Amino acid sequence: MDQYTAPDGTVFNVPSDPIEKAKLADVIKTQYGVNIDAVEPTLGGRIVEFGKAIPRGGLATLASAIKGPVALFDVGDDSLSYQGIKKFEEYLQEDSALAPKAGYEDLYSTKLGGAFGSFVPFLGAGVVGGALAKAGTLSARAGMYGVPAGLAIPAGMGQQADLIEASRGLGEEIGGVKETIATLLGGAIGLTEIMPVANILKKVPKKALEDLPTKQLILEYIKSAAQSGTFEGGQEVAASFLQNMVARGLYSDELPLIDSVFEEFTLGGIVGGTADLVF
Q1: What's the CA gap between 174 and 167, in Å, rounded?
Q2: Which pLDDT tens digit goes with each residue over 142-154?
Q3: Per-residue pLDDT for 276 more than 90?
Q4: Residue 3 gets which letter from DSSP?
Q5: Nearest to 74 by CA among 155, 164, 156
Q6: Among candidates 203, 198, 197, 246, which has minimal Cα distance to 224?
Q7: DSSP conformational letter for 144
Q8: Coil, strand, or helix at residue 4?
């Protein structure tokens, strides 16, 4: 939980609940003439929040992958299991040590850290799958696609569950059949997450390029990173659009069909390009 120290030394605990936070902000503004929401981000703060967002994004992806199957078998999303996962997600984003500091949560740098974090579990699943295939435990195809799919499908279900919850928050009613179909389609859309990972991991190994002239080697690295970045950015935009299409087509007239396309594409592009250069 964030704290605010007033000019007279009084320390206030800033609640994570938006309504309670707004009440406290009004009190502080009345007594001290200070707007606690007017935080001026610093370079050091941006770096810290970027770093915190990486593990937070990874944990959020894993939580979503757990929530997806739970939502599939919990029509109405009111079971203790579902509510427990939801509370963990809220804690992670609002009250944990990894929660973003007030004033930094909507910065591009913070979102970029979260994008890196959310990509790590999928990349990790691909690496594990490749290792199992290399050891002969799985076939090459099962290792490259099957293992990551085991994470991507439930994570996609979790993303659709979030949209269902948002729709209900707007007062829309969703029947059990539509909810189940939407969640299953969300899982199918989640499969698109494995494509950028497979594209990165199956590319020509860097060792095979070591004999190239320096200039050509650099150009090959840039070309590969650009391709992977475009692939990942495009996948993020497409997956978001498809998830929204399912929501609009089955149960919602209120949720937006298109979100921040440019932001999603650039975040995905930076993450994909960076992962390509590293691997």
Answers
A1: 8
A2: 999 999 999 999 9
A3: no
A4: E
A5: 164
A6: 203
A7: I
A8: strand
For residue 100, which of 199, 1, 166, 200 has the smallest C-alpha distance?
1
Residue whose pair of structure tokens reads 């650099």 in the numeric block: 218
Q: Is 148 helix (H, G, I), strand (E, B) or coil?
A: helix
End-to-end CA distance of the chain: 37
Q: Tens of pLDDT along 16-62?
A: 777 888 888 888 888 877 777 666 788 999 999 999 999 999 999 99
DSSP, residue by residue, 78-142: -SHHHHHHHHHHHHHHHTSTTSPPTTTTT-HHHHHHHHHHHHHHHHHHHHHHHHHHHTTSS-HHI
Count other Cβ atoms within 10 Å, centred on residue 194.
24
Q: What is the pLDDT averaged over residues 239-247? A: 96
Instruction: Give the C-alpha separation, 219 to 213, whole Å.
Output: 10
Q: Read off the pTM.
A: 0.82
How far is the C-alpha of 255 from the C-alpha of 12, rounded, in Å? 36
Helices and strands in the chain, H and E counts: 10, 2
The residue among 79, 118, 114, 83 whose CA lies nearest residue 98 is 114
**CA distances from residue 100 to 6, 84, 159, 165, 226 in whole angstroms, order as listed:** 21, 21, 21, 23, 30
Two tokens, residue 58:
């990874």
Tell me the C-alpha distance between 54 and 117, whole Å: 4
Closest alpha carbon to 276 in 208, 228, 232: 228
